[in-house]
Amino acid sequence: MTTLIKPAGGDPPPLSQDKPRWVAHLENNLLADDDIDDVQRDLLGILRDMLEALGDDITASSKAAQRILEYCVEAYPSASAPSAQSHSSDVLGFINEVASLSFELTCEVPFQSSEHERLVRLVIDIKGLGPQAFGVEDLDFQPYDEAVGIAVETCWNRYQVPSSKTENELREKCESALSIATLFARLFEAGILGVRGSQFAAICIAEGLGLRESRAVARTELARWCEGAIAAQYILISGAALANEIRSPSQRPVYPLGKDEWRAWTAGFKTLAQNTPENAEWNLKQDAARAHDRMVELFPELFPELLGNN
Fold first, then answer.
1. Residue 15: its pLDDT value, please?
2. pLDDT digits 0-9 by tens, 27-49
3. Which parts of the chain sit beneath pLDDT 50?
4. How is residue 36 annotated by DSSP?
5. Burial 98-130 (b: 16+ CB within 10 A, else e)
6. R_g of the chain, CA atoms, integer Å
7. For residue 284, which of 87, 128, 245, 280 is within the disulfide window of CB 3.0 to 4.6 Å?
8. Any idea where the domains of the chain sit in the sequence?
9. Model pTM?
10. What residue spans of 4-112 are helical by DSSP H?
């Protein structure tokens, strides 16, 4: 199977204004792709049913995860595989496809929407089923390290805050970047991304606070707000997991991540909240203040001077 996520470049067909972005993207881009295969088409059908289902998000995502599991077991029965290793490879490819398509749709929904919640929960629910549910007997089998990891790296490289776009294009790209960043923050908080998640957080927080040179060369005010909003969401969503990684590192980080960075980020969020106008997009001013307070709460021993004033 081949992923439908393609490198950035080229203009997509115009999206219908009568449909949600994700529906128009699914119909005009994903399902219309000449390279789509039957498995991808079936998976997109399950994802669409989930996103359009009535009722609560937990039930919708749980039902979709079960349907995906049943589809995998039927499409790749372990009994007919030539070897256990071959079956594991099939499952890896299948889970990668699920993650890739889920992330593709995540980019097209608002980050605080019900649709976003369902897509995030789906990925977490599938991991919760465990490899044995997919017919994999190897107890050390870790499909998310490889299968979901491939999709994660693709989205990380593709959905960054853009540097030069028209205002409408920039806003849409910023919304996609926020949706992916909050997805990663949720997966990191759920224990799925591991050190990869902490490194993504460290990079995005430093960029959003102006403590690291941005990858967006020509940064407009809207782009700066977007980077700041992403930084705040990483703390508000996965701050506890990030603090735990600093206290007990799982491995030596590639990008600086320690108590000095935590102090600098806390001060940076205070400055960001003070300097951001009330009309900034994505509730940035309020969320930056909340992120500052959350960081002090999570690492109180680093801020005795602040706690002493309370």
1. 45
2. 999 999 999 999 999 999 999 99
3. 1-16, 310
4. -
5. bbbbbbbbbbbbebeeebbbbbbbbbbbbbeee
6. 20
7. 280
8. 1-8+15-158, 190-310
9. 0.88
10. 21-25, 38-52, 57-75, 84-106
